[in-house]
Write a structure and sequence with these properties.
208 residues; alpha/beta; Rossmann fold; Arc Repressor Mutant, subunit A; 2 domains; five-stranded mixed sheet; 5 strands; globular
C-alpha cells in the first residue's frame, strides 16, 4: 500500500499544497496525510503517517524537503520505516524518483540530505554576514513581523467569537502570536477610549 504525505509551510501556499496531493494520487497513494506547518514545527500528521504504515507499505512524498528538516531527521525517519519494513519513495529527487528499497537508494538520500543541510547552513552564514554589514551601514531594519500583518484578520475572527487555537490554525500563525495581537488590539481599544488631553505645559506660570 502506498501512503502519501504532503506538507506546506503556511495556509497561503494553496497551489503547492494541491500540486503535492495531485502528484501523490498519481503515484498510487491510497491514503494521504497532509498538514500545513513550518519546517521546524511539530508535524502531527507525519507522526500519524509513520504510525499508520505497515510492513510492505511505501511512504511517498513529492520532495525531500517536504519530509525531513535535516539529515539527522531524515535518517531517523528512514530507520523508523525500516524497523517496520516500510520503504520511502521521493517522487522528485533531482529530477528523478528514488526510494530506499535498495542500498543505493538509501545512500543517495543520505548523501543528498547532507548536501542540502550544508547548503542551508551556508545560506544562513551568508545571511548573517549580510545582516552584520547592513547593521554597520545603518541599513538593517530587522525582520518584518509577518504575524502582526494579520492583525485585521485576527480582529475580525475574534469578533466572530473564534477561539485563539482556531485563529492560529486558519491564519497559519502561532497561538503566542495571536495572543500578542490580542494585547496590541486591547491596547489600541484602551487608548482610543481615552479623551485626548492637551500636552504638558512646560512654560513657567505667570507671576501674580
Amino acid at each position: 500500500m502506498h501512503i502519501g504525505y504532503a506538507r506546506t509551510s503556511t495556509v497561503e501556499q494553496v497551489a503547492g499544497y494541491e500540486a503535492q496531493q495531485r502528484d501523490l494520487e498519481a503515484a498510487g497513494c491510497e491514503r494521504i496525510f497532509q498538514e500545513q506547518v513550518s519546517s521546524v514545527a511539530q508535524r502531527d500528521q507525519l507522526e500519524e503517517a509513520l504510525r499508520f504504515v505497515r510492513e510492505g507499505d511505501t511512504l511517498v512524498v513529492t520532495k525531500l524537503d517536504r519530509l525531513a528538516r535535516s539529515t539527522s531527521h531524515l535518517i531517523q525517519i528512514i530507520d523508523q520505516l525500516e524497523a517496520k519494513q516500510v520503504a520511502l519513495r521521493i517522487l522528485d529527487f533531482g529530477g528523478s524518483s528514488v526510494d530506499t528499497k535498495s542500498p543505493t537508494g538509501r545512500l543517495v538520500l543520505t548523501v543528498f540530505g547532507a548536501i542540502a543541510q550544508w547548503e542551508r547552513e551556508c545560506n544562513l552564514e551568508r545571511q548573517r554576514e549580510g545582516i552584520y554589514k547592513a547593521k554597520l551601514a545603518g541599513k538593517y531594519k530587522g525582520r518584518k513581523k509577518t504575524a502582526m500583518a494579520k492583525m485585521d484578520d485576527v480582529k475580525a475572527l475574534r469578533a466572530d467569537k473564534v477561539s485563539p487555537t482556531e485563529i492560529s490554525r486558519r491564519l497559519g500563525i502561532s497561538r503566542s502570536s495571536v495572543y500578542r495581537i490580542y494585547e496590541e488590539l486591547d491596547g489600541k481599544v484602551t487608548l482610543s477610549g481615552l479623551e485626548q488631553t492637551t500636552p504638558f505645559n512646560t512654560a513657567e506660570p505667570a507671576k501674580a
